[in-house]
C-alpha cells in the first residue's frame, strides 16, 4: 500500500510540475504577445503621428513671407521639393502624395509669396494662380525603348556636349550617389548590384521635355527626367505594392515588354507570357536580353548568340535579368502591373508586326515555320 501511495505521490507531483510549467509557458507567451503588441502599436502610432504632423503647417503662428519660385516645366515632385527646401511644407513626399490623393493638378509656374503657416489647401490654391510666359529654348525627346548609350547621344546632341562626356557622367559613382539621395524611392540599392551594367539604365523616362535655358547641365537634364520617372512610379505605386514589386523589378519587367512590343502588340499578353514562364520556373528566353548582353546590335539572334555568358542572357538565367535593358513607356509599365490572364507560353512577332501567341512549343514552331521559316 505504501508503494502505491508513493507512486500516486510521484504522479501527483509530476502533474503539479506540468501544470506549473504550463502556467510559466502561458505567462511567457502572454508577455511576448503584450511586448509585440506594444511594439506594433508604437510603430503604427509613430507612423500616424509622423504623417499627421507632416500634414500640418510648418509653423501655424508664422507671419514670415517667403518668396518661392516655381520654374516652367516643374513636375509635381520638383514643386514639392522646392516647397520643402523653402520651409513651406515639412515633407515633400507627403505633400506629393496628398496632391495625388486629392487629384490636384494645374499648378502654374510663377513667383509666389508663401508663409510657413499655410495649410496644404492654401498652398495648392496659391500654386494655381501664377503664370509666366517664357519661351521654350529647345525640347528633348527621348523615345521609348532607348538604352542609356543612345540616350547619352541624344542629350549630347541637344546640349552641345560630347556623347562620351554625357555617358561617363551618367555612370559616375558620385553622381549616382547624389541622385540616390535625391530620389530614394526610385533609385534604390538594387541599381548598385554587381551584375548591373549601367545603374541608370531604364530609369530615364521616355518623354518630350521642354527646356527654358540654352545650355542646361547634364545634371539638370537627368533630374528633370528622374522627376518624371518618380511621378509615373508614384501613380502606379498602389498596384506595385499589391504585387510586391519594387521599382527596379517593375522597370525591369516593363523594359522586356517594351523591347518585345510592336505597334500592334497587346502588351498585356506579352506580360502574361513572361509571368506564366516565371511561375513554372521556365527561362524567359527573350532575344532583346541576348542583344543587350552582346553589347552590340544584331539583325537576327543566332544560336551562337544564345550562348553569351551574361546574367542578362535569359536563355541561360531564369527569372528577370539583373535590371532594365532599356527605358519603358507608361503602356509597358501598366502592362507589367496588369497582365492578361492567359495560358500562353510563347509569342512570335511576324514581319507585318502581328504577334502570334501560342501555348505549346509545337504550336510555336509551326507558326514560326509558317511566318519566318527556319
From TrEMBL:
Q: Which reaction does it catalyse?
A: a peptidoglycan chain = a peptidoglycan chain with N-acetyl-1,6-anhydromuramyl-[peptide] at the reducing end + a peptidoglycan chain with N-acetylglucosamine at the non-reducing end
Localisation: Cell membrane
Q: What class of enzyme is it?
A: lyase
Residues annotated as transmembrane? 28-51
Name the site position(s) for Important for catalytic activity.
260
Provide the membrane topology annotation.
Single-pass membrane protein
UniProt lists the family membership as follows: Belongs to the transglycosylase MltG family.
Q: What is this protein called?
A: Endolytic murein transglycosylase
| Entry keyword set | Cell membrane, Cell wall biogenesis/degradation, Lyase, Membrane, Transmembrane, Transmembrane helix
What role does it play? Answer: Functions as a peptidoglycan terminase that cleaves nascent peptidoglycan strands endolytically to terminate their elongation.
Q: Indicate yes or no for the key word Transmembrane helix.
A: yes
Which is one Pfam family of this protein?
YceG
Q: Which organism is it from?
A: Litchfieldia luteola
InterPro entries attached to this UniProt entry? MLTG-like
PANTHER family tied to this protein: ENDOLYTIC MUREIN TRANSGLYCOSYLASE
> Any idea of its EC number?
4.2.2.29
